[in-house]
Specification:
With about 80 residues, the protein is an all-alpha fold. Helices cover about 65% and strands about 0% of the residues. It has 3 helices and no strands. α1 runs antiparallel to α2. The longest helix is centred in the last third of the chain and has 23 residues.
Amino acid sequence: MSFPDKAARQACWDARDQLWACLDAHAEDMGPCRALRDRYETSCPGSWVKHFDRKRSYLKFKDKIQNEGYEPVTEEKPKAGS
């Protein structure tokens, strides 16, 4: 596979940005964004789609940690005699 030229890269990034904006506007509901997802998948190489999807998941996780805080899970030890 050859590397996409500048126009193809821009088309991919535009499709990704439009999809992400739609998902943000619809609280991650893919229903209203299905057409944009299809355009994104046809505009971008498969490896880029995978990378961008993982990046979005990471950015959402990072945002959640920054805004809601991090509370480590602690394991409770059973009490003696229980």
